[in-house]
Every structure is written in structure tokens, then in C-alpha cells.
Amino acid sequence: MTERLVLFTESASGPAYGLDEEIIRGAGGTLQSAAASSQAERSEMARAADVLIVGSAAMTRDFLSGLPRLKGIVRSGIGVDTVDVPAATDLGIVVANVPDFCRHEVAEHTLALMFAVARKIARNDRSVRSGQWRGLIATQIIPIYRLSGRTLGVVGMGKIGQMVAQKAQALGMKVFGYDPYLPPAVAAAIGVPLLTLDELLRQADVVSLHTPLIPETRHLINARTLALMKPHSLLINVARGPIVDEVALRAALESGHLAGAGLDVLEQEPPAPSNELFKLENVVFTSHYASASVEAYADLRRQVSEQAAEILQGKFPYNLVNREVMSLPQCRLGQKEN
User: What pLDDT is attached to residue 15?
Assistant: First the structure.
């Protein structure tokens, strides 16, 4: 069997990226991991690859056009916003992802941020550490409102959004959803009425974002849509930073229109120390780790490895993103090496 190369060209030190070499070898492949310092260096490394494992590096049309050997890309996560999928399709390259990765983790993190903001936990933690045990409760912690009985608006009702909805229902929250691509029957099956975005924003006490980053969702939450939100409502974002216009969000928080926000993602990552949102006491931040757990990373490693192996064997991966490539004559799966 001819040995083929599976390549990961980003930092491979994190727990998510130790792929299963036995699975790769079983498909006649060799796994290599080497962090590229630039797109040019990544391009040089990738010229020998049959399969690329992709984290956050940009897979542009120009980049992919210089890789005539490449047969497939496997995204080590859910979103494929870093991959030019139409370009990959035009070139006959299959693209795969792990769409059920970290559903429980992100849903749990969403609820954790929601509680942290609503209960003002981070603010009170800082007070306790500074030696103020109860002095700030009357002036900065109160008012606090219970979440049970409140309304959650889930923007993006994919697998994670649906799990957030179900967990929130178990807490006694009323849940509405917005997703123009979701069949109403799917939402009805879990008891979540679908509304327009504007209707959802007007009714929700907490708005939680779970959409992919695509042109239609960039700055979906902006000055206009923030103004529609209920006074003293909360915003949670565990999706992608650019879905929210941070300038407009800061204004809504500073004015008191929003009571608080929980952000696992930001428009710039890592953020500049001068980010104006850092000055606000009513925002809780986490460092884009909502997906993290031992179990989620084990699932991710296995599914990425299995799909890389399928591509090496000339098979379509089981989580194929660009299904239209299957019928194209330029599809590179099964083509003989030059």
C-alpha cells in the first residue's frame, strides 16, 4: 500500500490534537504535525499532503490552488468558516468536520455563563478576594433575579442550540428559538416555538448565540438588534466573536439597556489588553474554551482520525460538508497519483 501523508500544520500541543496514529497507519498513512509560522510556510509543508487537518488556519482559494495532491480537509471541530468550501469543491477537494463535537460542553458552558452573569458571581468573587465580604451586596450585587420562569431566546438551533434549549427547559425556563434553516417540526419536537429574530429579541430575558459565522451572521447582533432586546436582559455568546458588534454591545451595556453579557468569544482573539469591554463589571469572559472536556477531546481525536483514514482509502468521510463534490468529475477521491 502506498504511504500517504496526513498533515496538521498548527500548534499540536493542546489536548484536542493528538490524533490516533494507529487509525492513520491502518489506512496506509503517515501522520505529521508541525506548527507553521506563516501561510507561506504552511503552503510549503502542505504540498506533500493528501489530507490536511485544520484548526483555525485559513484555507483560502489561493492556498488550496497550490496543493494539487490534496484530496481532503478535515476540520478539527464544528465550524468551517476558516475553509473556503466553494473553492475546495471547485478543486475537487472533500471537506469534513465533526458536527456533534462538544454539544454537551458548549451547552453546559452556556448555562454556566448565564448563571455567572445573572448571579453576578465573577463580580462578587473579586469583592471577596479584595476583603469585602458583604459590603457590596446592597449596592452592586442586588438586584438579582431568578432564572427559573424567565425566557431564553436561542439564536441558532443546530445541535448545540437544541441541547441548550433542552437543558434550559429543565431549569424551568421558557425557550424560543430562531433559525431560518431549521424545519419547524424539529423545533416542535423539543417544544421550542420558532420566532423571527426580531420577535425573539423582544421577548427574551436571555439571548444565547449559537450560529455559525457566515456573511449573514457577521454583526447579526448590532445597534439595531440590541435596541430590540428587553431592558435589563442578558446576552451570551459562545459561538463566534464577530457575530456581535462589540462597539454596539459596549454602548448597550454602559447605558444599562443590557444588564450583562457572558462572552466566550471576541471579535479579536486573543483580544487586545485595551479592549473597552474589559472595563465593564457586568461582563463575564472566558477564553474560547466552551468546547473543552476530556470526553469531548477524545471524541474529536477519534472522529478526525477516522475521517482522515476514510479519505486516504478513497472513501467519502462520514461527515462530508460539501456533498456536491461527490458527483463532480474533478473530485480527487479515487484519482490515481500523477
Answer: 47
Residue 269 among the catalytic residues: yes
Among 240, 250, 301, 332, the one annotated catalytic: 240
Shared fold status for 4-101+294-327 and 103-285:
yes
In 10 A of CB 95, how many CB atoms?
25
Distance, C-alpha 22 to centroid of its chain: 28
Q: Is 125 exposed, middle or buried (0-12, 13-18, 19+ CB in 10 A)?
A: exposed
What's the pTM? 0.85
The three-class DSSP label of residue 70 is coil
Residue 69 CB-density burial (10 A; 0-12 exposed, 13-18 middle, 19+ buried): middle
User: Given pLDDT bands bounded at 50, 70 and 90, which one contains residue 338?
Assistant: very low
Q: For this structure, is 75 an active site residue? A: no
Domain 4-101+294-327 -> CATH class: alpha beta
Point out the catalytic residue in the list 41, 269, 281, 324: 269
**Residues 25, 104, 288, 302: which is the catalytic one?**
288
Closest CA to 72 of 29, 103, 33, 36: 29
pLDDT digits (tens, 9 = 90+) for 101-132: 999 999 999 999 999 999 999 998 988 888 88
State the pLDDT confidence band at 1, using cuts at 50, 70 and 90: very low
Dump pLDDT digits (tens) for 149-181.
999 999 999 999 999 999 999 999 999 999 999
> Domain spanning 103-285: which superfamily?
NAD(P)-binding Rossmann-like Domain (3.40.50.720)
